[in-house]
Amino acid sequence: MTPVDNDALAESFLLHLSTERRLSANTLESYGADLRRFVEFLESAGIDARSFTRGNFLAYLTSLREGGLSARSASRHVSALRSFFRFLVREGRLAASPIAEVRAPKLGRPLPKYLTVSQVSALLAAPDRQRATPEGIRDKAMLTLMYASGLRASEVVTLRLENVDPDAGFLRVFGKGSKERVVPVAEAALSALKEYIEEARPGFLKKRASNALFLSRLGRPITRQTLWNRIRYWALAAGIEERISPHVLRHSFAGHLLAGGADLRAVQAMLGHADIATTQIYTHVTPDRLREIHRRHHPRG
Prior knowledge:
mainly alpha; DNA polymerase, domain 1; hpI Integrase, Chain A; 2 domains; 3-stranded antiparallel sheet; 3 strands; elongated
């Protein structure tokens, strides 16, 4: 077998993921990081990817564990390599995948991290101290909207003015896979949005033309990184020490709705989940809800 450049095989696979499967930038970055680590292992062991064996694979897994990789990350590596070798088979570089029968270990899905109702109240109230500033008005609108509608970070930063219908009380959101869904918006969020659009957004435009809803100081669409930073800033201002991400607000939206008795299918539609099993993880019972159920229904409550 003529020696082959392992890096070239990996790059061909990543190009396939980008151009043919059209995976997101974040997913491509994860695949790229896993493949670079795998290629480093191949090079250090003097192994051609086309002659890789199941024994080599076990040695690789051992090296990952010894390197301190978590079980979840190791499982992701297994999935990435299975896809990589399937690609080599389809391209005629291999007759069969050496790890075709290997399955990534099943991992217990952790309960989603969420805020209590009082923590959410403190977080949404935090920008009130800076209501006189455009940033305070904008951030109040973003935070209130995220909790009111359960939006993903990517959905927030890509919202456009025409997606908002204040009179109808709905948003048109483009989620994963560019799938459109209609999301109801609470009155408090509509009020905060109206104030932002009328009072603060014109100052961000700086004579630019933009249909993006949430803008940065430079008049450009706000980035995911800025959104993360602003949530972290206001969480600390509200006295919330644990690290808060945009997804924590989404988790809180779903968890609080279900704890309040909302229908699971309705929450699934609002979140834009294709599979209801994804929504079911939010059906955890909070301690307060558990006590209330006990008080109402136990015969000696």
